[in-house]
Design a protein that fits this description.
By secondary structure, the protein is of the alpha+beta class. The protein has two helices and seven strands.
C-alpha cells in the first residue's frame, strides 16, 4: 500500500516587497477517451448485461443464479457465470451469460482445451469465437450456434448462443 502526503496545507510564503507574483491560470483538463476495455466494477449478474435486460428478466419473475466462470477445467477468479430463469421451478428456459478477465496464457489454454474436446474455433472482427458443436447443442440461435465463448483483449464473454453475446457488456 502506498500512502500519499497526509499533511495539511503548506504555510503561506512571504513575498518580498516589489516582487511580481502571478496566479497560475486554470487550464483545461486533458480529454479522457473512454475505452470499452475499461472495467469499473467487479462483474455481477446485474452489471454484465444491460440494466434494461436485467429489469426485463426480473419483471418475468426471473432471478440470477451465479457461479464461478469456468472454461473447461479452468476457473477464472475475476469472472462470473449467470443463469437467469425462474429459480422456483425446474426448467430449461434459462438465459446464460458470463464475463471474466483473462490473461493471454489462460485464454490460449482454454481455447486449446475446448477445441481438443470438439468445440469449433472461428476468428471474427470482435475476437475469437469458440462454440460448441451444433449437434450437441440444447438450443441454437438463428445461425445454428449454441453455447459460445468470445475471447477479446484481456476478457472473455459467454452466452447460451452466439447471437446472445451482444448482450454481454462486461461490468458497467
Amino acid at each position: 500500500m502506498v500512502l500519499a502526503g497526509c499533511s495539511g496545507p503548506a504555510a503561506p510564503r512571504e513575498v518580498p516587497a516589489g516582487a511580481v507574483t502571478s496566479t497560475p491560470s486554470a487550464s483545461a483538463a486533458p480529454e479522457v477517451t473512454p475505452t470499452t476495455d475499461a472495467v469499473a466494477e467487479d462483474p455481477t449478474c446485474q452489471n454484465i448485461i444491460p440494466q434494461a435486460t436485467a429489469d426485463d428478466f426480473v419483471s418475468l419473475g426471473w432471478s440470477a443464479q451465479s457461479e464461478p466462470f469456468r472454461i473447461g477445467s479452468i476457473e477464472l477468479d475475476e469472472g462470473i457465470q449467470c443463469k437467469w430463469g425462474d429459480q422456483k421451478i425446474t426448467t430449461d428456459r434459462v438465459q446464460m451469460f458470463g464475463w471474466a478477465r483473462i490473461d493471454d496464457a489462460d485464454a490460449t489454454a482454454a481455447e486449446k482445451e475446448l477445441v481438443a474436446s470438439g468445440w469449433r474455433r472461428e476468428v471474427g472482427d470482435a475476437g475469437t469465437y469458440i462454440t460448441e458443436d451444433p449437434s450437441w447443442a440444447i438450443s441454437t440461435d438463428g445461425d445454428g450456434y449454441g453455447i459460445t465463448y468470445l475471447f477479446g483483449d484481456g476478457w472473455v464473454k459467454l452466452a447460451d448462443t452466439r447471437q446472445s453475446l451482444v448482450l454481454v457488456e462486461g461490468p458497467q
